[in-house]
Structures are given as C-alpha cells and as structure tokens.
Amino acid sequence: MALPGAVGVRDVGPSDGTGRSPAESGTDPLGDPYLRTRFALPSRPATFLRRQRLLVHLNQALRTPLTLVNGSAGAGKTLLTADWAAGLRLPVAWLTVEAGDHRPGVFWAYVFESLRLCGARAADAAGAPADASGVGQRLLASLAAELNGFDHPVVLVLDEYDRMTNPEVARQLEFVLHHSGPGLHLVLVTRTEPLLPLHRYRAADQLTEIRGAELSFTPEEAGALLRLHGVHLPGPATSALVDRTRGWAAGLRLSALAARESTDPERYLKEFEADHSTVADFLLAEVLKGRTEETQDLLLRVSVLDRFCPDLADALTLRTDSERLLANLHRENAFIERLGHSWYRLHPLFREILRAHLRERLPSAEAELHLRAARWLRRSGFLPETLAHGAAGGDFDLAAGALVDDLAIGQLFTGLRSDALAQLFSGMGPEARSPASDLVRAAVALDRRDLDQGLGRLRRAQEQLSETEESPGLAAARLSCALLEALAARLTGCPPRAEQAAATAEELRQDLPDHLLDKHPELTALLMTHVSSARLWEGRFDDARAVLTRVASAPGGSATVLPRTESMGHLALLDYLGGWPGRAERRALAAVAEAERAGLPRPPGPGLGRLVLAAVAVDRQELGPARVLLDETARLPAREHDPVPTAGRALVLSRLLLDSGEADAAAEAADPAVSAAVTSPWAESHAAVVRSAACLADGRPDEAVRLLHGVGGDQPVCAVEAARIQVAAGRPRAAAELLGAVRAEGRTGPAVSVGAALVRARVAQESGDTATARRLVARALLDARRERLRRPFLQAGDWIEPLLATAPLHELAEGWLRPGRPRAHGEPVRSGPDLALLVPVELSGRERDVLRRLARMMSAEEIAADLYVSVNTVKTHLKSAYRKLAVNRRGDAVRRARDLGLL
C-alpha cells in the first residue's frame, strides 16, 4: 500500500563563514557541537533482565518498516530497545530526541549525524541541514534515495520521541520512511502517540506495536528481576506484587531496591505504603508535576474511584472538561488505562499515591467525593459501586435506599455477595434511620438467624412504610418486606404467615416494572423457596414439591444458584420422606455439586443435601460415611432456627445412633428441638418412631406402642416402621391397620414397599404360612436390591434369618445384603423353577406387547409406531416391566420374561 510523502520545505543552508557547512565542521545548525551522548545506546545496569519474548517480537518487527514501542514512564521501553539494538548485526543509528529538536533543521542534522556515526553514511558524504529552522526537500529526497539503495536496512531508533511535537518534522519523517523502501527500519520509542498516520500503516500491515500490556512484567519475569536484586519471594507474593504494580518495570525495580534493605522483604513488599516510597517520588515527578492545575485536581479527585468516565469525573470536579483531560492523559500514557466505552482507571500504585495526596491537600473532601460519586452512579444504574461509595461516604440511608429501590435486597442471601454486602453495611450506625436502612438491618440479622433483632427491625421498617405517603417508589420496599416476612415465617415454622407474604408479594409485583423484576430473579426464587420450605414443614408435600421444582429448574445463573440448590436439597428430602432413597441421593448429589460449581462460600442452609446423603447412607447401613457426612454438616454455620433442616438432622442422627446400638442417645436426639408456630407431622412422626424403637430395644414394648399414638398412614415411611414395631410388640392387627391406612397412590417408594412386605411376611411366618412369607421376603429383596436398602432387613429381627438362608432367597440377597459374590451391575438374577414360583410376576397386556417387540430388536421409536403410541408411553411401560422383572436392561428383561414363561 502506497503511503503519501511529505511536502518539502527549504534548501540546504549556507556555510558557517569558514567555507564549510556546520555538519562538516562537527557542529549542529546552531553552531553547537553535537552531544555524543544522544547517539549512544543506553547502558544496561547489572540488574537488567533480558526478556526473550520481547526480543523475539522486535526481531519479527524487522519485517515491517515501522516499529512503535509505546509505554508509560518507567515501563522499560528504552532499555529493552537498547538491549535488542546491541545484538543486531545491522547498522543501528540511535538518537535520543530532545525538546530543542522541534526545529526541523536541528532534528535532521542529528539524524544525519547518527547515520554517519553508525556507518550508514560515509564520513565525507555530501549534504546535511545547515539551517536550524528548516530542511530542503532535495536533501530529504537524496537521503531517502541513498537509503533505498542499501542491500540491508539501516535501523534508526528515535528514543523519547514523545518530545517531538512539530507536525512538520512528522511529515518529513514519513516522507523519508516511505521513499527509503527496504533500506530503512524506523523504531519510535515513545510515551505518546506519534504524529504519524498510524492507521494507514496498520491497514497496510506495515506497523509493529509493542505497548504497555506487553511491556508489563509477568510473574515469572518479576521473580527473576527480584532475584537479580537479591530478593527472593515465593510465587504467590510475587504475583501479588505484580498485581499491585501491574507489572510496571520501574515499580518493580524500585520496590526491589527498597525491599533489599528490609529484614523481611516479603512482608515489606506486601505492606509498604506506596505514598511514602521512591515509587511515589518517581510517579509524582514523571506524571503529576508539570501538569496544569485542572489536570492535577482531576487526578486527585478521581483517585477515590475504581473506574470512571468523563461524566462521572465531571460530577466530582464540578467542571465540564474531564473528557478532554482524560483523553490527553491516556494519550500521554500518564498511568491512566482505558477500559473501553469511555471508561478509565488509574494505575493501582498511582491511585494509592494520589489518594494520600488528596487527604493532604483536601483533608475534608474525600467523603463528599464519595457521595457525589454515589449519587451519580445511582442515577446511572451502577448499583454495586453506588453501595460502595455511599458507605465510604458515610451515607448508609443512601446506600440502603439504592439497594432496596433496585429490588436487590435478596443479594444479602444469595451466597455469592452476601458476606461482602454484610461487611459493607457493618459500619451503619444509628444515624441511618430510613425504612430501607432498617430493612437491610433486618435482612442481615435474619441471615445470621438472629430472629429477635431481625423481626424487631422488620416491624420498625413496616411501621415507617405504613406512615409514609403512597408513592410508586414504595412498592420495591414493600416487596422487600414481603421477602423478609416469608423468610421469618420459614424460620419460625409459620406456614400461614408465609402464605400471606406470598400473596402480598404477588399483589406488589403488579406495581413494579417488568425490567426491574427480571433484573433480580433471585428475589422471586428466594421467596418461593421460603414459602415451599414452610409448606414442607407443615406436611403439604405436593404443594411444596410443585413450587420447589419450578425454582430448581429456573434460569437466572449465579443470581439464583442458592435458592436453586436449596430447592434441590428440599426436593431430595421430600423424595427421602416418600421412601425413594435412590432418587433422593441423586437430587442431593446434584444440589451439592451445583453449590460447589458455583463456588458458594458456604453451602445453602445447613447442608441439606449432605443431610439427605447421610440419611440414605444410614438406610444402606453405611454408618461410617453417614457419620462423616453428619460431621460435615455440624461444621457448617449454625442454622438452628431453620425447622426443616433441623428436623432432618434430628431424623438422621437419631436413626444412626439407634442402628449403632445407642438407644437412649437416639431417643434424646430424635427431638428436633426447634421452636415453631406449627407442629410438623412428619417431624413428629419420625421422632415418635425412633423413640418407640428405642423403647422396644430397651425391652419396653408397651411403652413403645404407646409412643406410636398419632403415627398414621399419611406418613408412609413412618407407618411401615410403626407397623414393624407393632408386630414385634405382639400386635399384628394394629400393624395391619397401619399398613392398610398407607396411601400408596403411586407416590410411595421402595422404602415403603420393602418395609410393608417385611411386616406382612413376619405376620405370615408367625401364623405358619411360610410360603407366603417367602414370597413377600423375595419381593422385598427384589425391590430393595436396586436401592441397596439394608436397614429394613437388619431391623426385621431373628425370624427372617431362616428364610434368607434358603437357596432362592439367599441368591437374591447374595453380594449386597449377605456375604457372597458381588453381582455385576445389570447382571440378572438366575431364576430357576423355585424362584419363578416364589416370585410371581404379572405383566399387563401392553407391557407384554412392548416386550415382544423388544425381543424382535425393535427400537423404542419403532415400537411406538407399531403400537400407535408415543415414545414416552413405550418408555413408561418398559420402566414398569423392568421393575416387575427386577432388571435394568432390555436384554435382561427379555431373558427374564422368557424364563418365567411370559413371552
């Protein structure tokens, strides 16, 4: 791509009166001798670190005519370029630009002299600028033609090129570079953007750029640099220093020099005050001093901000010139970084130093600057920064009002930001008296389960809101009240109060804009979880499950991860209470995994997922793992006022103790010890069963039966365990009544069917009907094997041992309930004639139709098409057939059905 040349200006000037031009006499056009230090490559100190990755990049840059090394003061630009130039086999002309070079004749005279000194021009070569104020077009064209004739390029390095501010010189330099062709490679080392059309060079792929991000030291390079200074730091400490300095070369070197004098370098570099160090001296000298008063004032004021844009900066300075000043500062690499979309941030060390100077120059301004920022950020919708600056400025009513008005009070409970927000509001004093401030206090107290404080603050906020004149802005505050009411209802075990909160919230949602509700899905998810937990406590399992399922499957990303995992844990408990240990285990594992993936600082609730896993482990008689899981939940933050998990823990612990032979301790642990407005039927029933079983184990059957008063069929798992105790106490009729009252309706799982079968088997065995007892035990073994349910058999008593010793039943129990060869996953039970008679299997007509087609190797889709039903219907029939045949795979189902004569 052709690049346009510059327009020439003057001819070569006259001689100095001696018959020789200034160049020929060894002086510049002003008659002063050339300063040889400007042509010398800067020397590298002994502690200089050669960075190979940057040298490789500079070597690759030789393929383009122009290289730009652009970085802030102290970024290591000059030493890097000098180190690279010293290793080149090409002629290198080095020139350090100075302020006086803005006169074209002086600048070009020094360029000509640098080319002569490196051997690129002969000592007696004709032509050199003689007039300080200008240079002729003919001379520049002659130089370009001379360079273009070289076989190898000359490397011309112009260091500190940011001092060149004359656009005429820039046009002339572009002319020479363009017409020199491959004979010249120009390297500009600068802090600012040079006055060259860089966009054209980029478009033509004729420009190589090395900027601040690439010049920054990596942690590995920083570690090597520190070691050159005699400072040895561990990896994390080095990385922390790199973060603080942004890999800035001068900052690292100055820090290393200072740390070398310390007795504890690691601690010094971690804690040193940037504003009282050589780093501060360097930055103030290189960046702040010499700036206009307006620029210094701007930098001092924005130092209270993590990031800023021109409008925000204007709000702090009360002027309107921030856009221009910030653009200039960024262009000059004045330790201000552009983040995109007109946002900037200060270098961390520079910001520390500026804030210290702000406190010295304007000691009372910092709080007001924070509040100006908070008000601007609130109007602009930047909530997290509004909260931070409102708190930093001491206006907690402003911060709390922003949180509540934005419907973001739920973030105090979501896990990911809860601790940070609680810490932010920890400094709120009694001077904050708005309803929003009391709502925040109530939320923080309820989150840590301080019910007295939380409920008191909630009541005060509600009273203030009731006395406030109606306005659209009150809806967000009242919806926040509804959320806290629902949480309070959950924690106090008061379902009616939770339902009222949900109804109020639904009404208030109509008064709020959809975009605000959509912005904070966590509020709705939290409220639904609280209401569902209260329903679960009350024993309204179906109602609770319906809402919990919606929350667990709801979108929302990280905002709703805590209510999602809490809902999954509650669903796992519901599955367990319904007698589905396998399903409960899968949900609990999913809840635990979701919380771990999200990086929640603490598990939701008291680790309800882990409690369910412990309960399943007890049912499988894996008592060691169960204890480990219970110990993990015991180490979690206290949640003693949350009835559902508290009762769940009592249930698991009491069963574990009972099965470990500690009957008295089990009876004591069975009481959930939670104060609730409403009694929980399932918690009471499970506690009664454990206390009854403890009495039975202690030889007090009458007392055991008495304790079962109130346990009914509406709690199927408890009912079958109570029936077992009734039979053991010699009351088979009472046991039969209990089993008859169990409401199956397809909602109860294997734990119920196994327990009921074993109770009926014992009644049959004790009445002399051994054949029926054997069939019932076989059915229980088939149902229990897939879930690995051992507890019902170990609780059954001595009567079952003779039956389990018989060949067919021993085979069903082998490998998982009784010692023997472990059965491979999916391996079918061998079924001889005795087993076939022992366990009668009845398949429906449609199940037989599906199995017949399965035997012909038809897919589910083909079977569905052949039977004119949906694929889901086929899968439902297959699942039912698998359960009846006690298999897990298609081939096993076909073989088992054939063995039983069903196909």
UniProtKB/TrEMBL annotation:
InterPro entries xrefs: AAA+_ATPase (IPR003593), P-loop_NTPase (IPR027417), Sig_transdc_resp-reg_C-effctor (IPR016032), TPR-like_helical_dom_sf (IPR011990), Tscrpt_reg_LuxR_C (IPR000792), WH-like_DNA-bd_sf (IPR036388), WHD_MalT (IPR059106)
Domain HTH luxR-type: 836-901
Residue numbers spanned by region Disordered: 1-34
Pfam families in the record: GerE (PF00196), WHD_MalT (PF25873)
Protein origin, superkingdom: Bacteria
Keywords: DNA-binding, Transcription, Transcription regulation
PANTHER family assigned to the protein according to its UniProt record, in alphabetical order: DNA-BINDING TRANSCRIPTIONAL ACTIVATOR DEVR_DOSR (PTHR44688)
Protein name: LuxR family transcriptional regulator
Organism: Streptomyces violaceolatus
